[in-house]
Design goal:
- The chain has a five-stranded antiparallel β-sheet with strand order 1-2-3-4-5, covered by helices on one side.
- The chain is an alpha+beta fold.
- It is globular, with a radius of gyration of 11 Å.
- The chain has one domain.
- It has two helices and five strands.
Length: about 80
């Protein structure tokens, strides 16, 4: 599993065979959320969430904002353009 970032106990994943637009899957023991990165500057946008409360999803989005440049670079390595 291509983990590109961690937020506490959550794994941030970019699947190598995934589709555009640039996005990440955030996976934890109780849920999964998908955030569109809006590369290259963000902000991350919640596309869907299963198991995370809205407050948790907002906290994840805030944590992702600080990593947008690195996450966009990882997306570009795996998929080319955003």
């Amino acid at each position: 599993m291509p983990v590109v970032y961690r937020i506490g106990g959550l794994r941030v994943v970019i699947w190598p065979n995934d589709h555009r637009p640039a996005h990440v899957h955030v996976i934890g023991p109780n849920g999964e959320a998908v955030f569109i990165l809006n590369c290259p500057e963000g902000p991350p946008e919640l596309r869907e969430s299963f198991g995370f409360r809205l407050r948790e999803a907002n906290e994840i989005a805030e944590a992702l904002m600080g990593a947008i440049p690195a996450l966009c670079e990882e997306w570009s390595k795996a998929h080319g353009s955003y």
